[in-house]
Design brief:
Keywords: Coiled coil. The chain is of the alpha+beta class and about 325 residues long. It has two domains: about 1-150, Nucleotidyltransferase, domain 5 (2-Layer Sandwich), CATH 3.30.420.40; about 160-310, ATPase, nucleotide binding domain (Nucleotidyltransferase, domain 5, 2-Layer Sandwich). It has helices at about 35-40, 65-70, 85-95, 110-130, 155-160, 205-220, 225-235, 250-270, 290, 310-315; strands at about 1-10, 15-20, 20-25, 30, 45-50, 55-60, 100-110, 130-135, 140-150, 165-175, 180-190, 190-195, 200, 240, 245-250, 280-285, 300-305. The structure holds adenosine-5'-triphosphate and magnesium ion.
C-alpha cells in the first residue's frame, strides 16, 4: 500500500514511483474487447475496468496490451496531453498497480511551457478524480487523491541531479518523446532556484527521430511503415529484411539522431543566449538522454542516473 505516489505521464511512457515500488507502461490506451484465455496467456499489459461514482463500468486495454491490439491511441497529436481522456485512465491504472491508498498524495508534472497557465486546473481535476479501478481479474479498488501537487517537468529531474557545485548556474535538459523541457537554475547554498525566463519547452524530441526514419523508410522501400515497427527498428539493431531484401539502416539512423540532437542543442543555446556559455554544469534526463547522442553537442554534460525515471523520482522526493 502506498500513500504517496509520483506520476510522470509522458507522451511515450508513464513512469510512476512510490516509496515501495515503481512501474513504467507505454502511454497507450485502447477500447477493451473480449479475450479468450489463450489470448490472455500470450499477452502482457493490462485489462483495466474503471467505474467513476454513479457511472458505468468502462473497460480498456492499457500499455503493451493496447499496442498489441493495434487499436491503441496515444496522445501524440494532442499538445495538451493532460486534457486528453487517456490521461485519467493512465493515472488511475498506474495508481492502482502501485497500490495507492484512497486519498493518497499524488505528485504529477506539467511541461514548463504550460505550468503557470494550467497547474491549478490540473490540480483541481486530479483532486476530483475518483474511481473504482480493477486490473486483470483482481478486485476493484477505490482510487482517489487527497492531496495533489503539480510540479514542472525538468525541475523534478533537477532534484535528482548530483549537484557538483554549490554555486553557479546549471541547466537540465529533459528530452522526451514529443517535448524537451529545459530548466536553468541558480544554485545558492545548495538550494536550486529556477530562473523562469531561462526555462521552457521545445517540440523537438525523440519522436522526431521516429518520424524522420518512417519517411526515409518509405523513400527507400516505397512502402509505409507502422509506428510500432519504426520503434522496433530504431531501438533495435537497425538491420532488417524487408520483402526479401536486406537493409542496413544504421548509418541513416545515426544521421537522423545526430540531426535531432543538434536541433535540440541549437534551440536550447538560442533560448539561453549568452548565459549558455556561463553554465557551470549541464545535466541530461528523459529517454532522450539514452536515445540521442546529446553529449556530442552538449560537451561535458552529465546524464542523470536512470534518466527516464528522473522526473518521477524527483517528484517523489518533494513530499
Ligand atoms: N534505453 C533506451 N534506449 C533507447 N530509447 C529509449 C530508451 N529509454 C527510453 N527511450 C526512448 O526515449 C523516448 C523518450 O522517453 P521518455 O519516457 O523520456 O518520454 P516521455 O516522457 O514519455 O515523453 P514526453 O516527455 O515528450 O512527454 C521514447 O521514445 C523512448 O522509447
Ligand atoms: Mg517526459
Amino acid at each position: 500500500m502506498s500513500n504517496v505516489i509520483a506520476i510522470d505521464v509522458g507522451y511515450s511512457h508513464v513512469k510512476a514511483v512510490s516509496h515501495q515500488g515503481r512501474i513504467v507502461i507505454p502511454s497507450v490506451v485502447a477500447p477493451a474487447r473480449e479475450l479468450s484465455l489463450s489470448d490472455f496467456a500470450q499477452k502482457t499489459g493490462y485489462a483495466v475496468s474503471i467505474q467513476k461514482p454513479g457511472g458505468p463500468v468502462q473497460k480498456y486495454f492499457v500499455g503493451e496490451l493496447a499496442i498489441k491490439e493495434g487499436q491503441g491511441a496515444t496522445f501524440t497529436t494532442d499538445r495538451e496531453k493532460h486534457r486528453h481522456p487517456n490521461h485519467d485512465i493512465l493515472v488511475l491504472t498506474v495508481a492502482k498497480l502501485l497500490g495507492a491508498e484512497p486519498q493518497a498524495t499524488l505528485v504529477a508534472g506539467l511541461p514548463i511551457a504550460y505550468y503557470k497557465a494550467q497547474k491549478e486546473e490540473l490540480k483541481k481535476h486530479l483532486e476530483q478524480l475518483e474511481a473504482d479501478v480493477a486490473t486483470g481479474s483482481g478486485e476493484p479498488k477505490r482510487i482517489s487523491f487527497g492531496k495533489v501537487i503539480i510540479y514542472p517537468q525538468g525541475a523534478g529531474a533537477l532534484l535528482k541531479a548530483p549537484l557538483l557545485t554549490n554555486s553557479g548556474t546549471v541547466l537540465l535538459i529533459d528530452v522526451g518523446q514529443k517535448t524537451t523541457d529545459y530548466v536553468t537554475a541558480e544554485i545558492v547554498n545548495d538550494m536550486v532556484r529556477p530562473i523562469a525566463s531561462l526555462c521552457g519547452s521545445l517540440e523537438t524530441a525523440v519522436g522526431n527521430v521516429y518520424d524522420a526514419f518512417a519517411a526515409e523508410f518509405q523513400a527507400l522501400t516505397g512502402s509505409p511503415i507502422s509506428p510500432v515497427r519504426v520503434i522496433e527498428i530504431v531501438r533495435g539493431n537497425g538491420q532488417v529484411v524487408f520483402n526479401g531484401k536486406e537493409y542496413d539502416f544504421r548509418p541513416i539512423i545515426q544521421n537522423i539522431k545526430e540531426s535531432v540532437a543538434r536541433s535540440v542543442f541549437d534551440q536550447v543555446q538560442a533560448a539561453l543566449g549568452e548565459r549558455f556559455s556561463f553554465l557551470s554544469r549541464v545535466y541530461l534526463a528523459g529517454g532522450g538522454a539514452v536515445a540521442l547522442p546529446l553529449t556530442e553537442f552538449f560537451r561535458g554534460a552529465i546524464s542523470l542516473p536512470e534518466p527516464q525515471w528522473a522526473n518521477a523520482q524527483g517528484f517523489l522526493s518533494i513530499v
